[in-house]
Write a structure and sequence with these properties.
The complex is a heterodimer of chains A (about 180) and B (about 250). Chain A is mostly helical. Chain A folds into 2 domains: about 110 residues, Fumarate Reductase Iron-sulfur Protein, Chain B, domain 2 (Orthogonal Bundle); about 60 residues, no CATH class. Helices cover about 50% and strands about 0% of the residues of chain A. Chain A is built from 8 helices and 2 strands. Chain A has a two-stranded antiparallel sheet. The radius of gyration of chain A is 21 Å and the shape is extended. Chain B has about 250 residues and is an alpha/beta fold. In chain B, α1 packs antiparallel against α2 and α3 packs across α4. Chain B is globular, with a radius of gyration of 19 Å. Classes of the chains: A mainly alpha (about 180), B alpha/beta (about 250). The interface between A and B is large, with 49 and 47 residues.
Chain lengths: ~180, ~250
């Protein structure tokens, strides 16, 4: 690796680290207890909370503003949000529990905390094949097989040079873990 | 490109992946067109963030420079629903229709990323969205109001392993149940992911001894296709997991 490229990589890492620090500062300072009124609109709007008791965005914001971040990074709770964005839309203080959860997920990945295996599986699939899932033959309800050709569709496009594609993607995606 | 899942792992890099897709369309001087609400929401989010935060845009363009691309901000993001409602308008659309689906009752299911948060795409009212309802009415079908119209299908949570299958089945039960209570013939959605979630949810409910709803779930373009007089086979109805025959029989030929 040339010296130039090394320097550029370090640059990217520093920039990313700075950005996450900045995001967290923004989020946490916006979330001083006096800003979040704990009104509970986020919790009342949340479709996940209705079906999974441990998930409570109002409580999550309270924990972040009290500095109990590590407790959250260790817990499954931050991976339970389904990103419907109702809390972001409805928060009267513009806090967006959703964005806070995204930042917590970023931090959990960087800190090496557990996350659902599906994330790695999907990313690995894209690295290997260029797509999340190859278009596959499906069956109709009566059991007939269908593929793209039988529907008159051209073959699905995939990266021309899969090796180079994976390399670029690896740089972009895995780069974040260096921090 | 699974950018919608990568931004959970890395905010800036995830955004860079989404933006790369915007660049591909921009380089061809085209608008970016999608059939999926989540794609629409995620691409609109990238566009919004890069327009409102110059520092972030610089950051993302630095990453894109490594693959020889630059985001200029000229591209528009479109969903088939925004094109039909906002660009084409329902008046023009109705001129193409061959059939009126007059005795069909539908439950519109918006899908979160189509209209939330309002500031991303400004497509529809965030509390009382109505554009899908209007498009359904253009076909002659009726759009019935029901409790879970703007609920979340929870697909993005269960697909990535954060939400248990059990919880996602209970939510499907709630949504399909509330539509069924209003006596509709089908649910009409704007997102393939919502459709998958509500169809597979019904199969799981039935397997688990719950109510056999047998509620067909269509993409809006499939309903429109029927009104355009297209062949049922062409519209892929034989690939739907829930048999839509009772619905198709209601449509007079």
């Amino acid at each position: 690796m040339s010296e130039n490229m090394e320097r550029r990589e370090v640059d990217v890492v520093t920039r990313t680290r700075n950005f996450v620090t900045l995001m967290l500062q923004r989020a946490v300072s916006e979330m001083a207890v006096e800003v979040c009124e704990q009104c509970g609109k986020c919790h009342a709007s949340c479709p996940v909370s209705r079906h999974i008791e441990i998930f409570n965005p109002r409580q999550l914001i309270a924990k972040v503003s009290l500095g109990r971040v590590e407790e959250l990074l260790k817990s499954d709770v931050i991976w339970t949000c389904t990103s419907c964005l109702k809390c972001k839309e409805r928060c009267p203080e513009n806090i967006s529990p959703y964005d806070v959860i995204l930042i917590l997920r970023n931090l959990a990945i960087r800190g090496g905390y557990d996350h659902p295996a599906e994330y790695d599986e999907f990313i690995d699939a894209v690295m290997e094949k260029g797509v999340l899932q190859q278009p596959q033959r499906v069956r109709t309800r009566s059991g007939e097989r269908r593929d793209r050709a039988s529907l008159g569709l051209p073959p699905a496009a995939s990266p021309r040079d899969i090796k180079r594609f994976s390399e670029i993607l690896r740089n972009i995606v895995r780069g974040g873990e260096l921090v | 490109m699974p950018a919608c899942l990568v931004h959970a792992l890395d905010y800036t890099r995830g955004l860079a992946l989404t933006t790369r897709n915007l660049c591909l369309a921009e380089e061809e001087h085209l608008d970016l067109f999608t059939l999926c609400s989540s794609c629409f929401g995620n691409l609109s989010r990238a566009k919004y963030l890069l327009e409102s935060d110059k520092g972030l845009r610089k950051e993302v363009n630095c990453l894109l420079a490594e693959v020889g691309r630059e985001y200029k901000g000229e591209v528009k993001v479109k969903h088939v629903i925004t094109v039909l409602h906002d660009d084409m308008t329902s008046r023009k659309l109705s001129g193409f229709l061959e059939k009126r689906l007059t005795n069909v009752k539908t439950a519109a299911f918006y899908g979160c990323h189509m209209f939330l948060p309002h500031k991303y795409s400004k497509f529809d009212d965030p509390e009382f969205p109505h554009k899908l309802d209007r498009l359904i009415e253009v076909t002659g079908a009726e759009s019935i109001d029901y409790e879970d119209k703007t609920n979340c299908c929870i697909g993005c949570g269960s697909f990535f392993g954060g939400v248990s299958e059990d919880a996602s089945t209970r939510l499907a039960d709630q949504i399909v149940g509330s539509a069924k209570k209003r006596g509709v013939d089908c649910i009409v959605a704007t997102c393939p992911f919502c459709i998958m979630q509500l169809e597979l949810g019904q199969l799981r409910i039935e397997r688990g001894g719950g109510e056999p709803y047998r509620m067909p779930v269509l993409h809006y373009v499939q309903l429109l296709g029927l009104a355009l007089g297209l062949d049922e086979k062409e519209l892929g109805f034989d690939l739907r997991r829930i048999d839509p025959t009772p619905l198709l029989e209601k449509i007079t030929h």
